[in-house]
């Protein structure tokens, strides 16, 4: 890691005011991320992964500590920290093209001509293999396609940091694998810094340079950080037999299901079961 | 059997199609037929001071009469203008300095004229209400403080009957609209403002609720893109609340139409309401039939106005899942 880090999550603590007093969600989360690094955040539901991401995005202000990008403190959301939302959040009244265009116009106003913008939007849609559906509205395309467009919208803003909140969580396993491959390809080409929240152990190991494992809340913090030293480009089939890959998986599973085993009563288990079952199933 | 299966006959499809057609057209027809039967059965038993209550046949005859009267009035008007033009031309021929006088025909407005007046009044009142209500609703919906400030007022004025507004509107219009050469008649303004005051509320409330409930995800996207306040309103808030705005507009328009008839009746302002009142005061043996024609026409126009709004909504809104109800 360079001596002058690209992105610093600097001792971030977060507490929310609730009717029953203040709730301490995050406690002293400290993380330095190098340019072009792919970092995943993994942990059980409710451990504050999304809160960390929202603080980096600027959508939430930390109660203590802060986020510094290229030496500047993050105070508000902005296109240099583009977010890919879990439920894609495309505007249903705009076509695929127009959804991407909204961000592009905002970022490149005065810097690119009309024609250049069009080329750039088409280029980004082509990168996620969605150029055939430019004039379709979100309700006319599948969930995986919507998530592709969401990624294209984020990438088209030329972000320094790409923030992904469980981007593939709602997709079926096949679609998810396709999109993971696409994401690896894009990351290899563009070299953005990526922070991705995931519940999926395989996804974390396959994609990340480092896996940040979070302890259970309240007052969640970073439990362990695992550096995944696998050569890129990575191939999921070849890796499935790789002892190193399997030992990484094992470490994460051990953290999640032994060290940070979530003790829940049945009621709350039911609520979260849909989310946790994804990771345990795949694991 | 095998042969039959291999050459698929269109019969099942045709039967299915006819079945759908029967449901779509047949059932409403049955409903109408039952209604007509009950109506004529009941009408023959009701004797009023103006004679027997009109049945379907009597009402049908009266609608014919109303049309005939309309045609007759138009012919008289045409004849009047023809005579006037001729007279002016003659005077002009005798005296080139003569400035021709154009007088409007002053015949009694027919049923169809009254329909036109009512439609024009309701549309102007409704448009004015929309022009105020949608922007106001957006502003109120965007700010929780403004919502808290305006909500009690809206809840207070929303249930007020047009009959309560009407005297106030009439007096205020008389006081403020003082001109020798009125562009529009006072009675039109009275009706229009009453319509506006009564029909403005559902649009304000629904727009505000729609705007306040824009999905937090969309707001977050807007924040990440750093959209300016105006772009945020026009590109995110407004499209997102279009379905709610139209729900409000449809409620407003149907209220506007109901209010207008009442206002015209009470204030003797030209329109369908005045037609009904005049017929009631007239008290001839035809009056009840003619009022019944007006009732049916008022209903039909209200229905068509609502359908028109729905078509407009379908054309404007991204949400194509609006059901036709």
Give your account of this protein's structure:
The complex is a heterodimer of chains A (283) and B (325). With 283 residues, chain A is an alpha/beta fold. Chain A has helices at residues 49-57, 96-108, 114-127, 143-156, 173-190, 201-207, 236-239, 243-259, 266-282; strands at 7-18, 21-33, 38-42, 64-69, 72-73, 81-84, 161-165, 193-198, 210-214, 222-227. In chain A, the strands form two sheets. Chain A has a six-stranded mixed beta sheet, sandwiched between helices. In chain A, strands 2-1-4-5 form a four-stranded antiparallel beta sheet, covered by helices on one side. In chain A, a hairpin with a 2-residue loop joins strand 1 (7-18) and strand 2 (21-33). In chain A, helix 2 (96-108) crosses helix 3 (114-127) and helix 3 (114-127) crosses helix 4 (143-156). Mean pLDDT of chain A is 88; it is low at 266-283. Chain B folds into two domains: 59-104, no CATH class; 111-316, MetI-like fold. Helices cover 78% and strands 1% of the residues of chain B. Chain B is built from eleven helices and two strands; from the N terminus they run ααββααααααααα. Chain B has helices at 2-6, 11-43, 56-94, 111-142, 144-157, 162-176, 186-212, 216-224, 229-267, 272-282, 287-316, and strands at residues 47-48, 51-52. In chain B, strands 1-2 form a two-stranded antiparallel ribbon. The A-B interface holds A 57-59, 76-79, 81-83, 85, 87, 89, 91-94, 102-103, 106, 137, 157 and B 215, 217-218, 220-221, 223-227, 235-236, 239-240, 242, 318-319.
SSE layout:
The complex is a heterodimer of chains A (283) and B (325).
Chain A lengths: L6 E12 L2 E13 L4 E5 L6 H9 L6 E6 L2 E2 L7 E4 L11 H13 L5 H14 L15 H14 L4 E5 L7 H18 L2 E6 L2 H7 L2 E5 L7 E6 L8 H4 L3 H17 L6 H17 L1
Parallel strand pairs in A: 3-8, 3-9, 6-7, 7-8
Antiparallel strand pairs in A: 1-2, 1-4, 4-5, 9-10
Chain B lengths: L1 H5 L4 H33 L3 E2 L2 E2 L3 H39 L16 H32 L1 H14 L4 H15 L9 H27 L3 H9 L4 H39 L4 H11 L4 H30 L9
Antiparallel strand pairs in B: 1-2
Helix pairs in contact in B: 3-11, 4-5, 4-7, 4-9, 4-10, 5-7, 6-7, 7-9, 9-10, 9-11, 10-11
């Amino acid at each position: 890691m360079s001596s002058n880090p690209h992105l610093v999550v600097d001792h971030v603590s977060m507490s929310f005011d609730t009717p029953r007093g203040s709730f301490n969600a995050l406690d002293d989360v400290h993380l330095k991320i190098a340019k072009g690094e792919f970092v995943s955040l993994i942990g059980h539901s409710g451990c504050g992964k999304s809160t960390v991401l929202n603080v980096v995005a600027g959508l939430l202000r930390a109660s203590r500590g802060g986020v510094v990008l290229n030496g500047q403190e993050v105070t508000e959301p902005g296109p240099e920290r583009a977010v890919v939302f879990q439920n894609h959040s495309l505007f249903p009244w705009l076509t695929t093209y127009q959804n991407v265009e909204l961000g592009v116009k905002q970022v490149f106003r005065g810097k690119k001509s009309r024609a250049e913008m069009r080329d750039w939007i088409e280029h980004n849609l082509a990168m996620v293999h969605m150029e055939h559906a430019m004039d379709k509205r979100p309700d006319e395309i599948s969930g995986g396609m919507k998530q592709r467009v969401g990624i294209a919208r984020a990438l088209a803003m030329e972000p320094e940091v790409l923030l992904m909140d469980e981007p593939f969580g709602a997709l079926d396993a096949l679609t998810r694998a396709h999109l993971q491959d696409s994401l690896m390809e894009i990351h290899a080409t563009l070299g953005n810094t990526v922070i991705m929240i995931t519940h999926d152990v395989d996804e974390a190991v396959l994609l990340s340079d480092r896996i940040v494992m979070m302890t259970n809340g309240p007052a969640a913090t970073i439990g362990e950080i695992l550096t995944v030293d696998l050569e890129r480009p990575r191939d999921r089939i070849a890796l499935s037999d790789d002892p190193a890959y399997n030992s990484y998986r094992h470490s994460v599973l051990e953290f999640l299901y032994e060290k940070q085993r979530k003790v829940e009563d049945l009621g709350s288990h039911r609520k979260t079961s849909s989310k946790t079952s994804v990771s345990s199933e795949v694991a | 059997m095998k042969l039959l299966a291999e050459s698929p006959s269109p019969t099942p499809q045709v039967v299915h199609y006819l079945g759908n057609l029967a449901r779509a057209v047949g059932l409403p027809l049955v409903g109408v037929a039952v209604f007509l039967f009950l109506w004529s059965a009941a009408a023959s038993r009701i004797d009023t001071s103006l004679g027997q209550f009109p049945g379907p046949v009597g009402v049908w005859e009266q609608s014919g009469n109303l049309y005939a009267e309309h045609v007759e009035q138009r012919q008289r008007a045409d004849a009047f203008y023809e005579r006037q033009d001729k007279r002016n031309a003659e005077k002009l021929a005798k005296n080139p300095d003569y400035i021709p006088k154009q007088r409007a025909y002053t015949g009694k407005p027919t049923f169809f004229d009254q329909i036109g007046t009512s439609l024009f009044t309701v549309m102007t009142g409704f448009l004015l209400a929309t022009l105020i209500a949608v922007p106001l609703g957006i502003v109120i919906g965007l700010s929780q403080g403004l919502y808290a400030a305006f909500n009690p007022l809206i809840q207070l004025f929303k249930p007020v009957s047009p009959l309560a507004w009407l005297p106030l509107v009439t007096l205020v219009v008389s006081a403020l609209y003082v001109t020798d050469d009125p562009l529009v008649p006072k009675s039109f303004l009275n009706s229009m403002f009453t319509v506006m005051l009564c029909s403005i509320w559902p649009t304000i409330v629904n727009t505000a609720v729609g705007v306040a409930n824009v999905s937090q995800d969309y707001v977050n996207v807007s924040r990440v893109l750093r959209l300016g306040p105006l772009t945020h309103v026009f590109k995110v808030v407004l499209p997102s609340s279009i379905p709610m705005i139209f729900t409000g507009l449809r409620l407003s328009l149907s209220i506007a139409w109901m209010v207008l008839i009442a206002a015209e009746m009470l204030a003797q302002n030209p329109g369908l309401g005045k037609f009904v009142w005049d017929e009631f005061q007239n008290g001839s043996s035809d009056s009840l039939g003619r009022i019944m024609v007006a009732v049916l026409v008022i209903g039909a126009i209200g229905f068509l106005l609502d359908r028109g709004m729905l078509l407009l909504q379908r054309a404007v809104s991204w949400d194509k899942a609006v059901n036709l109800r």
